Amino acid sequence: MAEAHQAVGLRSSLTPDGAEVELSAPVLQEIYLSGLRSWKRHLLRLWDDFLTGVFPASPLSWLFLFSAIQLAWFLQLDPSLGLMEKIKELLPDWGGQHHGLRGFLAAALFASCLWGALIFTLHVALRLLLAYHGWLLEPHGAMSSPTKTWLALVRIFSGRHPMLFSYQRSLPRQPVPSVQDTVRKYLESVRPLLSDEDFDWTAVLAQEFLKLQASLLQWYLRLKSWWASNY
User: Fold this and answer.
1) Exposed end of the chain (fewer CB within 10 Å): N or C?
2) Domain Choline/carnitine acyltransferase, which positions (predicted)?
3) Residues 60, 166 share a domain
4) Quick check: bond before 56 cis, omega within 30?
């Protein structure tokens, strides 16, 4: 329904003189509102969204990483190669009695950054792995070596006990279809419903639309595909 409402907002119409599309600020406003609604839904599911967002990691993995860093720091080892000292210098100076607190916060910030980098790496690896489609073309009961390797890597990076949207951020981004394909499929869908004369007139309007308005509307669609989860 949201996509239908945005399509109405474009105010496109077919006239005997050709296709007319009104492009104005409401179009960009609808794109903005669609992204805003998407993020509001995420905020309403804040904790579940956090768990699915960090999957296949977990909050316990952050605690384990932070504890390991604190233990190394206690043994006078610096796993950050000097980064925690630089973070401590950027923190406010609360006096000598809070020197231990600054070290604790520096370790927590470093552990969070390192944890986030590891999660991002896992998501990128899963997205690259899930983009592989070679297994679809293989005969039933047979599995090639690349597919076996791919399956083993997916099992390694996918984790255990996923939630409903755990792999949402790891799915490959679907490309925006070309406007030529969209128009072609539209003409194919209306062909059984129109007479020869009406279909020829519609085809002429479609070609005029491709020449005049299609490129700008396609740009709007690409913009929304980067802002909203459902374009």
Assistant:
1) N
2) 174-228
3) yes
4) yes
